[in-house]
Amino acid sequence: MYEAVESVIQLAINKKKVLEASLLRYVTKAALASMFIGFAIIICYRLAEPFFDAKSPVTSFMSSIFFGAALVMIMFGGGELFTGNTMMFSMSTLKKATTWKDTGKNWVATYSGNIIGAVMFGLFIHYSGLYADTENSQFLMNVVGGKISLTTTQMFFRSVLCNWLVCLAFWVPINVKGDGAKIASMMLLVFGFVISGYEHSIANMVLFVLALAAPHPDAITIAGMLHNLGVVTLGNIIGGGVFVGAMYAFLTTKKQDKKDVVALETEPIIKFSAGK
Predict the structure, then answer these.
(1) Cα 71 versus chain centre, distance
(2) CB count, 10 Å around CB of 23?
(3) Would you give per-residue pLDDT tens digits along the chain (276 residues)?
(4) What is the CATH number of the domain that holds 227?
(5) Three state DSSP letters for the chain
(6) 154-175 tens-digit pLDDT
(7) CA–CA separation, 104 vs 111, rounded Å?
(8) Angle at 178 between CA 31 and CA 110, to 5 degrees
(9) Distances (CA, A) of 229 to 102, 122, 153, 156, 225
(10) Is this structure's pTM higher than 0.85?
């Protein structure tokens, strides 16, 4: 676990250096991350659409099974994801390897890049005509409408749970050896967050742009989307920053120096001997 923390800290330091060296390069990497999520969404939702149309009970399973491919592309393709960085920079800052100023800069840059990537990907799909026919987008519109109709409390707690699990999908593979095992653990944990119905701010960005770029019901509004993103982003920060980043920073806090412990253990014996 201690080695994993050191790995996360080094990752955060490297991200800080890339951002300081070139804002444009860093934002481009963040844009790639949301585009990778977009590719996974299209795969999953196109796969799930016929099952949804047939009212099949396996619709949720089909829409979730390959979503972990997004995280695999981000990790191995060099993307920068806001939700994962909430964990990494909280941990590195609590360990005093970075500052809260560094954390704020990173989160703003990453989130901005993720928005840019989501919009760009939405435009690509719009002009591709994949969702030009409303018969092909019923599942997408159903999911987006459901997200907007959630209460604020539901959005918040689902988003906390979501990034808790997503950041474990970053954290667990660090403790696993072998690329095959790393990929399998990522796929499993991301599948878990999607099929559970949790709320992920960057995935929602992409979904909302896709919905707006296609013919959509009047109930799907920009105001509803912005409300969802605001609440879900806050919940994601807490889920990743507190329940993974801060939690493992605390669990790996080093105890007293061994010499001090030995001194404390032997002190009563020394006093007893002196008195005798």
Answers:
(1) 9
(2) 14
(3) 888 899 999 999 999 999 999 999 999 999 999 999 999 999 999 999 999 999 999 999 999 999 999 999 999 999 999 999 999 999 999 999 999 999 999 999 999 999 999 999 999 999 999 999 999 999 999 999 999 999 999 999 999 999 999 999 999 998 888 889 999 999 999 999 999 999 999 999 999 999 999 999 999 999 999 999 999 999 999 999 999 999 999 999 876 444 443 443 444 433 433 443
(4) 1.20.1080.10
(5) CHHHHHHHHHHHHHHHHHHHHCHHHHHHHHHHHHHHHHHHHHHHHHHHHHHHHCCCCCHHHHHHCCCCHHHHHHHHHCCCCHHHHHHHHHHHHHCCCCCHHHHHHHHHHHHHHHHHHHHHHHHHHHHHCCCCCHHHCHHHHHHHHHHHCCCHHHHHHHHHHHHHHHHHHHHHHHCCCCHHHHHHHHHHHHHHHHHHCCCCHHHHHHHHHHHHCCCCCCCCCHHHHHHHHHHHHHHHHHHHHHHHHHHHHHHCCCCCCHHHHHHHHHHHHHHHHHHC
(6) 999 999 999 999 999 999 998 8
(7) 11
(8) 15
(9) 23, 17, 13, 10, 6
(10) yes
Domains of the chain: total: 1
Q: Give the pLDDT confidence score for residue 262 in this predicted structure.
A: 43
The count of other CB atoms within 10 Å of the CB of residue 18 is 16
* Whole-number pLDDT of residue 46: 95
Residue-range definition of the domain harbouring residue 220:
2-275
Using only C-alpha atoms, the chain has a radius of gyration, in whole angstroms, of 22
